[in-house]
Amino acid sequence: MASSLTTFTDEARIALDTLSGRAAGLFSPSLRLGVTGLSRAGKTVFISALVHNLIHGGRLPLFEAQKSGRIARASLEEQPDDAVPRFQYEDHVAALVDDRVWPDSTRAISELRLTIEYESASGWNRLFSAGKLSIDIVDYPGEWLLDLPLLGKSFADFSREAMELAALPVRSDLSQAWQGLASSIDPDADADEMTARRLAESFAAYLKACKLDERALSTLPPGRFLMPGDLEGSPALTFAPMMKLSERRRPGSLQAMMERRYEAYKTHVVKPFFREHITRLDRQIVLIDAMQALNAGPAAMADLERAVTEILSCFRPGRGNFVADLFSRRIDRILVAATKADQLHHESHDRLQAIVRRLADRAVARANFSGADVDVVAMAAVRSTREGTVKQGRDTLPVIIGTPLKGEKINGETFDGKAETAIFPGDLPEKVDPVFDVSRQQAENNEPAIRFVRFRPPKLERTAEGVTLSLPHIRLDRALQFLIGDRLA
Ligand SMILES: Nc1nc2c(ncn2[C@@H]2O[C@H](COP(=O)(O)OP(=O)(O)OP(=O)(O)O)[C@@H](O)[C@H]2O)c(=O)[nH]1
Ligand SMILES: [Mg+2]
Q: Quick check: 289 and 379 in contact, CB under 8 A?
């Protein structure tokens, strides 16, 4: 009797704590927003601009909660995951705003919690909810997502596919050194650390060369070979595909060692990453550098499309897929966003968006994927240019004006990183099809459609009182509305 009474009061106290905690807003609802994209796609800039605009009450007319004045406050709070590096928001904003330089490359996962206090739009909700939403923003390399298919592949499958891809004409020259080395090694020889390392380094060098090459080739797994994070040099990363594998590997052989490490990579790197991060996401934005791909031509567009297909496949693995079991939550909204639209005149923004829509539609159709809303946007998280016109003879040309980065070149002129310049960027094609038509590229070998120059981040305007205004953007508000707007209704 006495003991059950204690149990009862304990439970009652916990229940009471929960209630008062809720009343104090301690248990505010949260939303996990994943931000990804291949390296240099614009993840760090996007997160910095999003947070800066919310904290400083930026101009966000398409973000309904802000426009109608229902956001009381947005502030940074301690993140829920102690073992994940914090997104260094203050450093990135200082770079953008004070120094007018783009933030450094980040190359690993990081997290930031932004809490929004708001007034609900409906009287009913106002009565029952605390009007507080915590958004946990998770920035992670898209390259790591491309590892997911490895979970279903044996070392022999992985080796065979790697060989096939390396032998393709587009890659054969880049993979030559590694192929040469791999073919000279007997998998049945005794396991040897230095041989394993030489093979792994040579294979990683080939993957990096694909990435750096101007053919803008899509990324091949293992993703950590390109973006090792804090795992550089660890045994789980010191393996490579092998040729001439024997069916029955000998214990103590090089093949046995490589196979064990490949399995360790899956168990200790790929799986935990998915379980701890991807499967807990509610919403996702995939940033793409469509401008760079457009400039490189249809083959690069096809490659970008392939990468987006693979990335989308990771978020909603169809039923029956072995990874579906890993998911604890369901991503219900995905935004595919082309950043850096500020390198075009606004007349081309809708064209860029149409191109991204086509790309996303094709990727969705091909991915093993269902059940999430996918939208697209052409945006600039940070707008580095203004618009204007320039008279040339009898024509008036629409131009964009900004400070080109030091060393950028156009028409033989090299910029010093200080002077403002007006540039006629050219228009994107009106029709979408040719952009994806690979046969056209070989036929014409034409000039890039757009001339694009990279600009420095903008100079922020100050009010009469000396207050710095928030970072200017293009359609960041539209992205926000799609990603979190409904949760602030
Ligand atoms: N004009 C313009 N350039 C941008 C914008 N966002 C990103 N960039 C450019 O793209 C580069 C990469 O942006 P980041 O945000 O660092 O990209 P990331 O995806 O975090 O890159 P990693 O950390 O290397 O994976 C920047 O250095 C800028 O030059 C934008 O909104 N407008
Ligand atoms: Mg980054």
A: no
CA atoms within 13 A on the CB side of 348: 25
CA distance 476 to 472: 9
CA–centroid distance, 160 to ligand 2, in Å, is 33
* Ligand 2 centre distance from Cα of residue 59 (Å): 24
What's the chain's average pLDDT? 86
Q: What are the phi and psi torsion angles at 46 (to 5°)?
A: -60, -50
**Choice from 36, 40, 52, 100 to test ligand 1 binding pocket (greatest atom count within 8 A of CB):** 40
Question: In this structure, which residue's CA is closest to atom 8 in ligand 1?
Answer: 42
Rounded to the nearest angstrom, the distance between the alpha carbon of 45 and the centre of ligand 1 is 6
Of 224, 249, 203, 287, which is closest to residue 35 (Cα–Cα)?
287
CA of 42 to the centre of ligand 1 (A): 3
Q: Whose CA is nearest to atom 6 of ligand 1?
A: 42
What digits encode the pLDDT tens for the residues 327-363? 666 889 999 999 999 999 998 999 999 999 999 999 8
Integer Cα distance of 167 and 175 in angstroms: 8
What residues have CB less than 8 Å from 22, skipping those under 6 apart? 130
Structure tokens at 145: 């997502």
In ligand 1, the atom with minimum distance to the C-alpha of 342 is 1
Looking from the CA of residue 102, the nearest atom of ligand 1 is 27
CATH domain 2-140+277-382+476-488 topology: Rossmann fold (3.40.50)
- In the chain, CATH 3.40.50.300 sits at 2-140+277-382+476-488
Strand-pair category, 30-37 with 283-288? parallel
Which pLDDT tens digit goes with each residue over 400-445?
999 999 999 887 889 999 999 998 888 888 888 888 887 765 555 5
Is the distance from CB of 348 to CB of 428 less than 8 angstroms? Answer: yes
Residues in contact with ligand 1 by the CB-under-6-Å rule are: 37, 39-45, 102-103, 105-107, 141, 339-340, 342-343, 380-382, 384, 454-455
Find the 42 Cα to ligand 2 centroid distance in Å.
Answer: 7
* Tokens describing residue 177: 């050194």
In angstroms and rounded to an integer, the radius of gyration of the C-alpha atoms of the chain is: 25
Q: Give tens-digit pLDDT for 230-243.
A: 888 888 899 999 99
Helix axes 155-167, 169-183, angle to 10 degrees: 130
